[in-house]
Amino acid sequence: MGVFNAFFGAFSKDLGIDLGTANTLVHVQGKGVVLSEPSVVAIDKKSKQVLAVGADAKRMVGRTPANIIAIRPLKDGVIADFDIVEQMLRYFIGKVHPGFLAPRPRVVVGIPSGVTEVEKRAVHDAAVRAGAREAFLIEEPMAAAIGSGLPITEPTGSMIVDIGGGTTEVAVISLEGIVVSRSIRTAGDEIDEAILQYARREHSLAIGERTAEETKIKIGSAYNTGSERTVELRGRDLITGLPKVVEVTSSDIREAIANPVNQIVDEVKVCVEETPPELVADIMESGITLAGGGALLEGLDIRLTEETKMPVQVAEDPLTCVVRGTGKALEEIDVLRKVFVATQNGKTAPRR
Q1: Which residues pair with 168 in a beta bridge?
Q2: Dist. CA 244–CA 173, nearest whole Å
Q3: Are 112 and 184 in contact (CB under 8 A)?
Q4: Is 157 in contact with 280 (CB distance < 8 Å)?
Q5: Which long-range contacts (C-beta less than 8 Å, at least 24 apart) are formed by 47-54?
Q6: Measured distance CA(190)–CA(206) in Å, rounded
Q7: pLDDT at 307 over 90
Q8: How far apart are CA 20 and CA 17, in angstroms?
Q9: What is the pLDDT of residue 99?
Q10: Using CB atoms within 10 A of its CB, is residue 116 exposed (0-12), middle (13-18) or buried (19+)?
Q11: Nearest-angstrom CA–CA distance, 224 and 226
Q12: How far is CA 219 from CA 78, 161, 213, 230, 244, in A?
């Protein structure tokens, strides 16, 4: 079997996949990150036929006729619709992998640290059925730490906070293992939802998911950095039913998203409290690293520094940390063999 895999590995390009609630990213061996598209699929409601995937499907969100629905098949970092995820994975793998004559690739998929055995198996099976020769799982905080360049193989503590679309993963890592971890289903999506609810509650304004996300990106913040900005929220007046435009400030949005941001900050603090003292001493020296799209929320690093009394830094290119980590785990499999998660069939790493 080792000779078989070595032979096909010479022609196949192994893939690392960050299967995210909001976006799916793919790393190709020898090429780096080659794909980053929204985890959205547009289907015909009657025939269940897939009409568009990724960026093309996201453009349809909120703009489709009654017979077409644009759905996100992952919720809170786990599979909500197995068949649609399988088709989405097949589309992404087919988009980046060579033609049908090339051997099928080995695939490593990042998963949240809090998922159940059933959810792990669902991700594994979806990847295999989507075209992977072998599929292996790695916990997202571990992948994010590898992608951030943290010294995970050393006998020293490293702390990673990976804030994605559906989940926030907090972990302390040492000697290729997760010593302490916390996983909550409060992340970017909940921050967007808080902005939606704020618009309804304070301005009787119905806005779309895209508007909420764009508002978060433009003026969202976790800490008052002194820069006050404004944006216009465009939507439908809930009272008259007519179009309406409301101007909001960065302080308005900071107050609107305070609850989910507080939950994320509290989770980091709990993780620090549960960490062994020797590792806390290491983290006080090396600092906490932020990864994922949520790491880009203005002032979050300052807020966490203030709350934890530890240095906090944002990883280089935080959006791609997890997918770069999955790719590096495959490329350095002999060194990083222990980082893979066992599935029910007992596999933890590709056979050589």
Answers
A1: 163, 184
A2: 49
A3: no
A4: yes
A5: 50/84, 50/87, 50/91, 53/87, 53/88, 53/91, 53/92, 54/24, 54/88, 54/91, 54/92
A6: 17
A7: yes
A8: 9
A9: 60
A10: exposed
A11: 5
A12: 29, 22, 10, 7, 20
Separation in Å, CA 22 to CA 76, 164, 242, 293, 301: 9, 8, 30, 10, 22
Residue 228 has pLDDT above 50, yes or no: yes
Summarize pLDDT for 311-331 with one digit per residue, the tens: 999 999 999 999 999 999 888
Asked whether 273 and 265 are in contact (CB, 8 A), the reply is no
pLDDT, averaged across the chain: 87
Amino acid letter, 57: A
Q: How confident is the model at residue 1 (pLDDT cuts 50, 70, 90)?
A: very low
Q: Could you tell me how far CA 152 lies from the centroid of its own chain?
A: 20
- The span from the CA of 28 to the CA of 16, in Å, is 7
CA atoms within 13 A on the CB side of 61: 20
- Residue 265, Cβ neighbours under 10 Å: how many? 18
All structural domains of the chain, each given as residue ranges with its CATH number in brackets, are 2-36+82-143+321-341 (3.30.420.40), 156-186+261-315 (3.30.420.40), 188-258 (3.90.640.10)
